[in-house]
Amino acid sequence: MEPEDTRVPDKKRKRRCLLLLCASAVLLIIVLVVVLGVTLNQERGQFESIFISRCEKFKEYDCQNVWSVFQEAYINKDPCKVPTEAYDPLIAAAPFKPACNRMMFWSKTKDVVHDFTEKTDCFITLEDTLLGSVLDGLTWCGKEGSSATFTTDCPGWTQCDNNPVRSFWNRASAGFADVACGDVTAMMNGSLITPFSPTSIFASIEVKRFNSSRVRNLKVVLVMQKNAVANCTNMSLKNLEEELDQGINYDCKEVPESQIKECSVHPEKPCGSCW
Ligand SMILES: *[C@@H]1O[C@H](CO)[C@@H](O)[C@H](O)[C@H]1NC(C)=O
Ligand SMILES: *[C@@H]1O[C@H](CO)[C@@H](O)[C@H](O)[C@H]1NC(C)=O
Ligand SMILES: *[C@@H]1O[C@H](CO)[C@@H](O)[C@H](O)[C@H]1NC(C)=O
Ligand SMILES: *[C@@H]1O[C@H](CO)[C@@H](O)[C@H](O)[C@H]1NC(C)=O
Questions:
Q1: I need a surface site. Which of 32, 110, 125, 180 has the fewest CB within 10 A?
Q2: Does 22 reside within a domain?
Q3: Beta carbon of 112 within 6 Å of any ligand 1 atom
Q4: What does the mean pLDDT of the chain come to?
């Protein structure tokens, strides 16, 4: 009796042990899947939530729709094979609106320009528009065979021409310049030997889009710092004048950086009186 008595519970115990082992294995797998899923979701969700929350500051757009049209441009694609045209549907979904006499372009003066436009409310740069402000400072790309948005291991600006970030800014700059109208302002950098650089987005894309049927005048504000090397007589700026669509007037003014900063501190000055 005794040996049998101990053998039966022994078998039962073994079975119970196996069951327990099995259950803990299943539990472990579930935990792993959940943790992995949450991590992936956070990765994916973080970029999307920045996008959506920045977008929602502009009340007039369906941000969920803008987000899905945006994603279409680069998702599931080789991150070096995203041409500028990939963003055409995005520009159509959130078109740039003309802001005549208030449009500000810039080349190599980003900080001083935005410091000024943020505080004075006189001018609109690309980075003040819906698409420009949503994507300013962000990096993103897709991968073949994945429906996720990645924010790391994306090709750098110069690594390949058709990368998602560069193509976006090229397309958006073109779209912004297409709607330029009236008196247009451009802030250029007098500390550079060539303020109007042929390789800049301003020279290679925006200036070519200014149309005399809409744009009356281009005013260059050449920002002069203590170490300024170029002035308005610089040959590159003469080239700019010549490249403009026939019928667009041009003028250039050298303005000390300190004067622009002063206008940012005292925004009560009427727009345009800073130079
Ligand atoms: C002009 O370019 C130089 C060199 O890149 C930079 O250090 C400087 O801050 C720029 N000036 C302005 C006004 O942005
Ligand atoms: C300006 O617009 C007209 C039509 O509106 C077009 O025919 C012309 O090519 C445009 N010019 C430039 C420089 O884009
Ligand atoms: C502008 O710069 C050139 C040299 O690049 C210099 O000869 C000329 O005197 C400067 N003009 C003014 C008004 O500072
Ligand atoms: C002015 O422009 C020319 C040609 O674009 C450039 O080579 C030259 O060095 C520029 N700068 C100065 C400070 O003269």
A1: 32
A2: no
A3: yes
A4: 89
Check residue 45 and give its pLDDT.
84
Q: How many angstroms separate the CA atoms of 65 and 13, rounded?
A: 58
Given the CA of residue 109, which atom of ligand 1 is nearest to it? 14
174 in any annotated domain: yes
pLDDT band at 120 (very low <50, low <70, confident <90, very high): confident
Range of the domain at 177: 30-270
Contacts of 167 (CB under 8 A, 6+ apart): 73, 82, 83, 84, 86, 87
Instruction: Give the count of domains, the chain.
Output: 1
Determine, yes or no, domain membership for 40.
Answer: yes
pTM above 0.90, yes or no: no
Rounded-to-integer distance, Cα 258 and Cα 225, Å:
8
Does the structure show a pLDDT above 90 at 102?
yes
Q: Is residue 8 part of a domain?
A: no
Cα of 198 from ligand 2 centre, angstroms: 21
Q: How is residue 74 written in tokens? A: 């680069």
Task: Give the CATH number, domain containing residue 232.
Answer: 1.20.82.10
Give the pLDDT of residue 130: 97
Of 218, 219, 221, nearest to 246 by C-alpha is 218
Distant-in-sequence, close-in-space partners of 135: CB < 8 Å, separation ≥ 6? 51, 168, 172
Q: Is the CB of 231 under 6 A from ligand 3?
A: yes
